[in-house]
Design goal:
It is built from seven helices and eleven strands. The protein is α+β, with helices and mostly antiparallel strands. Helix 1 crosses helix 3 and helix 2 packs across helix 3. It has two domains: 71 residues, Winged helix-like DNA-binding domain superfamily/Winged helix DNA-binding domain (Arc Repressor Mutant, subunit A), CATH 1.10.10; 157 residues, Chorismate lyase-like (Chorismate lyase, 3-Layer(aba) Sandwich), CATH 3.40.1410.10. A hairpin with a 3-residue loop joins strand 1 and strand 2. A seven-stranded antiparallel beta sheet has the order 7-4-5-6-10-9-8.
Length: 256
């Protein structure tokens, strides 16, 4: 009997299975990576449905149990969702879903926040040192920089600076002076084909600069909560560096 480890069969019209050290990984992880690659390359688009488990098992040359475990891993990451009676869907970003997953600011009494974003400025600029470090960019790289406030009932509560790699986000079309009627991660996906898979937040304190103080309606040097976020795409590449300042809100973290 051969002692070679099993590997995922190569389906037609799909990328090659990774070779080398990856071949020793559990079979369901190899299958998961192939499923993820099809989401990344647009074979299965946000809101669309995957083929049935038997069809996927046949396509990849693995058991239904292996496919089911691979899909459960992607469900656990929030990338797939099982729809009763309809199949398994590639999860699209919606404003409500994005707020639930990624909006961690709450009122001091724990009430959820439902903000409206207003674009103050949008311009392409040379990435500064923090942008380059957060986004993994080289010297001279360009970023699209958005400045915006997030308000509730007309009261500005958050001031944000968002830096994005310029080329992938050229179609974002954030016009200064306009409101963003959708959560920004919905716009990343719908306009630029960039899906945020996860984000890492770092919490610090700061003081209001004159520009931030004017935007938030507080005195300069007011103590602020500062949350710095690096958001990551399906490919694992960082695609957003965000700094959010607030004097009025708390940050909620759920620890399992």
């Amino acid at each position: 009997m051969s002692s070679r480890s099993p590997s995922v069969a190569q389906p037609h019209n799909s990328p090659e299975v990774p070779a080398g050290p990856l071949a020793s990984r559990p079979l369901y992880l190899q299958a998961r990576d192939l499923l993820l690659r099809r989401i990344v390359d647009g074979t299965w688009k946000p809101g669309g449905y995957l083929p049935s488990e038997p069809q996927l098992a046949l396509d990849l040359g693995v058991s239904i149990g292996t496919i089911r475990k691979a899909m459960e891993d992607l469900v656990g990451q929030g990338l797939l969702e099982r729809q009763h009676g309809r199949g398994t869907q590639v999860v699209p970003h919606s404003s409500d879903r994005s707020r639930f997953r990624f909006l961690r600011f709450v009122h001091g009494d724990g009430r959820p926040l439902r903000p409206v974003a207003h674009v103050l400025a949008a311009a392409t600029a040379r990435a500064d040192a923090r942008d380059r470090a957060a986004l993994g960019l080289g010297a001279g790289a360009k970023v699209l920089v958005l400045l915006r406030t997030r308000s509730e009932d007309g009261v500005p509560l958050i001031y944000e600076r968002i830096a994005l790699p310029a080329e992938p986000f050229a179609a974002l079309n954030a016009e200064p002076g306009t409101d963003m009627l959708e959560e920004i991660y919905v716009l990343y996906q719908a306009r630029c084909g960039q899906t945020v898979a996860r984000a890492r937040d770092t919490i610090a304190t700061d003081r209001a600069s004159p520009a931030i103080a004017e935007a938030l309606g507080c005195p300069p040097e007011t103590p602020l909560l500062l949350v710095c976020r690096v958001a990551v795409a399906l490919t694992g590449a960082p695609i957003e560096y965000r700094q959010s300042w607030t004097a009025a809100l708390a940050y909620r973290s759920d620890l399992d």
